[in-house]
Structures
1.
Amino acid sequence: MKKVLFLLTALVMAVMMVAGCGGGGGEKKAAEAPKVLRVGTEPTFAPFEFQKEGSKEFDGFDMDLIRAIGKQLNMKVEIQNMGFDALIPALNSGNIDVAAAGMSITPDRQKAVDMSDPYYVAGLVVVVNKDNEAIKSINDLNGKGISVQIGTTGAERAAKVPDAKVKNFNTNAEVFLELKNKGVDAVIIDKPVAEYFLATGGGKDFAKIVGDTLEAESFGISLKKNSPLTKEINKALLDLKKNGEYDKIYTKWFGAAKK
Ligand code: ARG
């Protein structure tokens, strides 16, 4: 009898200890740990998002910006790599909270997801091989081969060129490689990305930009439709513009801040 009582007491004490520690500790942790902001991106879009050779780190203007936004919201930023055309489905299915991917704000996308206020003004350009003297603008692309990244506004623009043979690729590394190999005549891509590609070595030996910027496009951060975070992201963006943090990030990647 004594033995049974002793065992029972020991058991009850053990249970209490486990419950006490687990419960108490857990609560404390939950209160201290910042919420996670799950960010999706497609990192072949330098200088907005890219991974340095041999590195898994996410680098670039958008990456600095979203980390600054996370700090502002007191959230822990976790970035995942996915296909550009997978970002909106991932937002809608709840696999990520935001997409930071140089995503242009378009009426179609605004129907599918929430988009933040614009944080960068860009636009599309045509890129051709350096020795190509025949193509001087988008008007010379009829019936030509054009490579683009799948799901982008560049791909949409290429699809409107009469009789063009459009090749869609998952990454911009492949998009530019196809041009280098002369598998296509041109690339349609965002101007700051084309400029960076020409300036940083990768493209300057074989490529050049021709013609004018096709149309202005503004980048926004996208979220699931009616996300409660949309307002908070816009507020954070505004705060970062006010406190000079946005300008700092802008200058780091593009030189003197645009006014
Ligand atoms: N601005 C273009 C668009 O919205 C291209 C974006 C591509 N972004 C990327 N991370 N690969 O369609």
2.
Amino acid sequence: MLRAKIAVLVSGGGTNLQALLDAEDACKIRSGEIALVVSNNPNAYALARAKSHGVDTVVLSRADYPAQPDFEAALQQCFTARGIELIVLAGFMRILSADFTARWPRRIINVHPALIPSFCGKGFYGLKVHEAALEKGVKVSGATVHFVNEVPDGGEIIFQKAVQVLQHDTPETLQRRIMEQAEWKLLPRAAEKISREIIKARKG
Ligand code: GAR
């Protein structure tokens, strides 16, 4: 069985990328292989994680690709050259255009650190999501893995997991608990599920 080739797009620390790499090592991702990591941030620690795992890396920075069509053409070229079949957004902070997402229907997935449709969409990313959740006073938050379409955080939901908010939570403590209890579990599980679907679709 030829495994589905996965590209992971990152911008920062890459703990979700690490969860994917660890899941591959532990054979929890069996139907896919992480073949490429792309960062839009040259200083992302995620790049070091990929390299120490022997995964090919590419940096496409905003400085080099300020225009969205040029950035997306370069991305597409990287994917075509390597036969990428699944794109996983793991803390990737540059929004993809409708043109790009339309070329990859049900083949781009994203992890979001809240229970969509709460605290999502434009402007809700990273710690800002948890700040907004705490400000609202929600007692439960969580994480969502969903397909990516032209609406930011608007694609069909694949997996969701609720996580309790504790009384003295700060955005940082809540972020960490949601990562540990939800994101790092759901994202590898979703990557395996969609990889399996890709292999099945190849067989017709
Ligand atoms: C994660 O919490 C991820 O869900 C979030 O950024 C963090 C990246 O951490 N993504 C978004 O907010 C996207 N809207 P990581 O680099 O350690 O995986």
3.
Amino acid sequence: MSYNPKEIEAKWQQQWEAEQAFEPSDSLSQKKKYILSMFPFPSGRLHMGHVRNYAIGDALARYYRKQDYNVLHPIGWDAFGMPAENAAIKHGRHPKEWTYSNIDYMRKELGTLGLSFSKTREFATCDPLYTKHEQKFIIEMFQKGLLYRESTTVNWCESCHTVLANEQVEEGCCWRCDNPVELKEMPGYYLDIIRYADELLEDLSQLEGKWPSQVITMQRNWIGKSQGLAFDFELTEESKAKLGGKFDRYEVFTTRPDTIYGVTYSALAPEHPITKYLVEHNLLEPEVAEKIKAIANMSEVERAKQDKEGYPLGINVIHPLTGEQIPVWTANFVLASYGGGAVMAVPAHDERDYEFATKYNLPIKRVIEGGEELPYTGSGRLIESDRFSCVENEEAKIAIINYMEEEGKGQGTTNYKLRNWGVSRQRYWGAPIPFVHCDECGLVPEKFENLPVALPDDVEITGEGNPLENHPTWKHCKCPKCGKEALRETDTLDTFVQSSWYQFRYATNPKKWEEVGIDKADADYWLGVDQYIGGIEHAILHLLYARFFTKVLRDLGYHDIDEPFQRLLTQGMVLKDGAKMSKSKGNTVDPDALVDKYGADTARLFILFAAPPQKELEWNDSAVDGAFRFIKKLYDRSGKVTGKTLPEIDQNSLSKESKLARVKAYEALQKSADVYEYTFAFNTLIAACMEALNALDKQDNADVWTEGMYLCSTCLNRSFRMWLQS
Ligand code: ANZ
Ligand code: ZN
């Protein structure tokens, strides 16, 4: 009897299928574990990163099933998005056909990997039923004022005729066609994530010790809460006149009110209304106006890469406390989208302001004691600060805010780096945003009974323009409110919207899917996800959006859950020859070929053995061979198992070798709970099993063999020895 993984695995996979072995029970009173690996985009084939992700989740799911938990371990498809449209452009395939045929192929791949996923809960986010419930949430968010439509500045590529995300702008050009990107005012839909900023920040403390600290820090910084003072600079009379009486004052935000007496200039963003006015009314030197326009055309990301650059605007403001005149500049480091889009500059105590002041010979005034050199950014007592001199600067922050408030000159303010989430995409392959534009009624949500607003199948996808916009009839509709001719919104939702609530969809019993997107009892039972597993690249976007959506849906009454993912494991990348496996580098290993040659057990065992899951995994062919040999040996020795229960063993009658084998087997067993429940260091557990097997081989007591094999099987969770399943 030789080890034939093909035969063994096919047999067990069929049996699991027949028994529906991995479906959770409908009972909501049993103890439960919800184990979730991030769902894949149906790109066409699985890659090793997927295999790693699912091997980890699978091991945990199997472990908890054996501990008598009701286990939810689902899989589905993150199926909307650009690549489907690119396939249409390149290969003339319809995005829907491309997506669903990729799903069919990849589902088979998952099957041959023998992963213990629930079959009944699988879905694709492009399924109309999923869209229907999502559109309902979106309308409810609109009704709560959480979703709004607004015109703002976006990155626009004229040749591709679409909006680009900041990440899709490279050196000021479109990543796809290399055309220079313009900033353009365009209407779009936004979700008010800032309304939840404080809760998103505070609840991070619940995740401390359960999520990687790096991810928590990244989210904290991304939300970027700062407290400080907002106040107005009043323009001098002369400057007001120069600005045609259109402006009296403008707002600045500072986190360092304690340095207010050290202000020597103020700077406006290049797209600040005052800067714009000066440029548009030819009140600046033409060369300067051109330079300012050039900066205004760069994205914020691009600007951050440039040297500090700025120009005097020929206007002045009055210092709110000293009455001094302060010159106003425009500078490339002032962001239009933050605070009031303007700053008070204190070169003595701020690096950026110092660099700028030195470059342009602006005065520098120290107002905090301490440090030898300027800029000095540490703490200390105030000097040259009128009534606040001698006060410690931390105290002075509060005192100055209070004073400004009493005098009616400013107020303590909280600002966030976090921007509201722009969810509009001018794309075909996404969930339509379910609104109608009516001349009479304005922006009107579609009626619930008309959902989903489904995509038309007959579209032409050329890569130019929005196919929904260009479709001859789709956008013409009746106003849901007054019934007159109206126009359907042609923007579709960002695909991150779909991945923000899929964890609730899986939790909802499929029998209820037709009716509800989220069933409350099911959601409250299954959520939060006990263990979430995925790549670190999702540290901010997906993981923040999903936390936000969870809170919003809770407030809409769909469930009582505060945090979607109780514990998070970020798996390391799979490398080969030191580089991340990728098609473009040509260093990929094809999972199908691996399974074909060695079997799924070897593939998964190797992945778990080669490195701790959180660390990078370097591909190693001989280690794959090693994993195969170990499983083969385990299989060969399974013939030594003589009974169906653990034998009683008389310790005294054993040889030294047999005793040692028992020690090794029990050591492995002892490790296993810690590994499955806490450290996930599967590599050490597998190593312990290998040692136990070696020690067993050095003795010949039949009972010790039986016991040892049972213990190894428990440690390896049966996922690697399907033949002992029964
Ligand atoms: C004066 C000052 C003195 C500042 C000093 C810092 C140190 P965070 O922590 O990021 O909130 N700032 C305000 N609005 C800005 C904008 N639109 N674009 C660029 N910079 C802006 O930083 C707030 C600080 O960043 C503010 O405090 C302001 O500079 C600057 F010794 O005011 B500070
Ligand atoms: Zn109407």
4.
Amino acid sequence: MAMVTSSEMFRKAYEGGYAIGAFNVNNMEIIQGITEAAGELNAPLILQVSSGARKYAKHVYLMKLIEAAVADTGLDIVVHLDHGADFDICKSCVDGGFTSVMIDGSHLSFEENIAVTKRVVDYAHDKGVVVEGELGRLAGVEDEVNVSAENSAYTDPNQVEEFVKSTGVDSLAIAIGTSHGAYKFKPGTKPQLRFDILKEVAVRLPGFPIVLHGASSVIPKYVAMVNANGGQMPDAIGVPEDMLREAATLAVCKINIDSDLRLAMTGTIREYFNQHPDHFDPRQYLTPARDNIRELVKHKITNVLGSAGKA
Ligand code: G3H
Ligand code: 13P
Ligand code: ZN
């Protein structure tokens, strides 16, 4: 049991037709809920940290909490930087013990994206750390970057071979119609993903691990829980689970989930306070929140990722 890179996990996931869950972490209860679920189901696991999470909780706290989770569960866990915006943050995470970093140059020109990604790969590989790059732009909000639906762009399969060859990147995030946050598809429309692009990318990059961002399903049960307890979320629509399952049987080896965790946690805490308006001990409302994160992650591992028993 250790903090490991994703190389072996992705190789097995590709061959086995399943995907590894990459869950965003921000505090102890979220880390415990996720890792206990993966531990119970013996599932391989990626914990990912955004720059916002690093600012909120501090790098050292998150590292020590994940170290504790490795010891507690006996699992090998990948510690990954989510959406690294530039070389400096990637370097800081490599130097600080992460086993994997994402350099997100998706907003740059193709040439600039290659240049910054290659610079990160050269640095990271030298220290035994793996790198995820991105081609194509997802709509939605991540940290300070807010990409409107009009400015989003599907990945062009014609670019993927050159990108991977020129950068030496270990995995590639592509844009096929998912987006960040809770509002992924227009209410009243049928969610659709460009599986044709995913399949074409897989033909161009045989055996190469593909990453799907913006992959929360925005589980209606938790949106309803938020709204039944004073929340006012408009129609929130995520990626249907059967589509994620299909993507996992194809080249997608890493599926990123954050919004579903946020909804489960917030819905549970709202419900708790509605039922116990006089309580004020954080342990009382964080216990059911952590329980529901554990149940949510078990559901994902079993019904969406197909990664149970693969650790
Ligand atoms: O892709 C974005 C992730 O959900 C992280 O969100 O940047 O608000 O921590 P954050
Ligand atoms: P969601 O907002 O769909 O959970 O996506 C999370 C993500 O892609 C993190 O990088
Ligand atoms: Zn993302």
